[in-house]
Amino acid sequence: MSEPEPPVEANAVERTDREHVFGTWSYQSEVDPTQVVDASGVRFTTADGNEYIDFSGQLMCSNLGHSADRVADAVAEQVRDVPFVAPNYTTDARAKLGEQLAEITPGDLSKTFFSTSGTEAVEAALKIARLYTGKQKVVSRYRSYHGATHGSISVTGDPRRLAAEPGVPGTIKAPDPYAYGSTLDPMESLEYIDEMLMLEGDTVAAVLVEPIVGSNGILVPPDEYLPRLKEIAHDHDALLICDEVMSGFGRTGEWFGCDVFDVEPDIMTMAKGLTGAYQPLGATTVTSAIADHFEDELFCHGHTYAGHPVAVAAGAAAVETYREENLIEHASEVGDYLGERTAELGERHPSVGETRGVGLFRGIELTRDPEKRVPFGERADKVSTGTTVVDEVSATAADHGTYVANMINTLIVAPPLPITESEVDEAIDALDAGLDVSD
Ligand code: PLP
């Protein structure tokens, strides 16, 4: 057996950060930030000189990798030319990105409200749905994440919502299409939603879903699920909101998760890959019917930094990069390869319960008992703290040069879209070493 590595001493930056900056979603006593000093392509380097393949695109957001020069240049140019104007002025990039989003989003989605995060994109979607329909309630699902502020955490279903409970009145949770871990069949869960909407009477403004669930474990519904969900929502005069914050911008090998199922939502929320993480930017895009409604009704919403010139410049350059470098097609091709390689992990490691996903959006769910599908003690009803088995798998993969995020017994694989097959191979070797720990 090899000797355990001695713990790495925190450097001065890490100690200062630890003292003065809150860590997210954690007991502060457990926060242990690592300084990153360089990032390039699909890799990043920490202050102790270690280099990692970024197999989760940081928080499933660095879709362009860390060397998107077109975006970096657009940001630098915009900061110098017009660093900021109030939202009632515009810039070349804002108009351009609005038009680009109308082009790349499906169907009749045509007009966008810009904000600064996925959370705010969801908040805007909720307000728009309520103003448009005149109804207040929203149905969302348990295994979902939609943001951290009061409205968006209230529609979030996972345990991160618990600290904000009971949340905003009128937020109702439905079951999920989670064939591996739920007692309900995915399509049966839909009929349950149909019945819920009937029993709620005509009071529900919208049904909000991640087309492919992200941080709650990469849950891909059956092909018929999303089209039927749209039908159910519309039968009850409710809108369908697709939260594409994580599943958008090539992650699935299509522009958006809902494109995988040929569904056009009434409202779409975006962030993360929208700028490839080069700037914070959120977007809420609506159909022309919804947009037209606000010609004569007050769109009672806004932020100082709605459509911040530098952020939208990054967004416009990012969309150009996806297009000109054919990154969506590339993600689809390498995504198939990634699917094969992650499936092999399932064959080699008894602690892998299921591998699933689409394109470069893959989950590896761990289990202590593949027959009974018993999870490793990490619970879906509590925010996990301390070090879990899946954390140990991630830590060992990191010791072998690959960063992979995890949540609720599942490794979340979502690398930058430009990743190559040989970089996938390198990362899979590290995951092999990591999964030896849970076997
Ligand atoms: N919606 C989804 C599907 C997400 O995955 C996230 C973040 O992970 C959010 C919304 C919130 O986005 P942000 O963290 O940018 O506020």
TrEMBL record:
GO cellular component terms given for this protein? cytosol
Keywords of this entry: Aminotransferase, Pyridoxal phosphate, Transferase
Instruction: Give the highest taxon in the source lineage.
Output: Archaea
Cofactors that this protein relies on? pyridoxal 5'-phosphate
Molecular function (GO) terms for this protein are:
pyridoxal phosphate binding; transaminase activity
- List the InterPro entries: Aminotrans_3, Aminotrans_3_PPA_site, PyrdxlP-dep_Trfase, PyrdxlP-dep_Trfase_major, PyrdxlP-dep_Trfase_small
Q: Which family does it belong to?
A: Belongs to the class-III pyridoxal-phosphate-dependent aminotransferase family.
Name of the protein: Class III aminotransferase
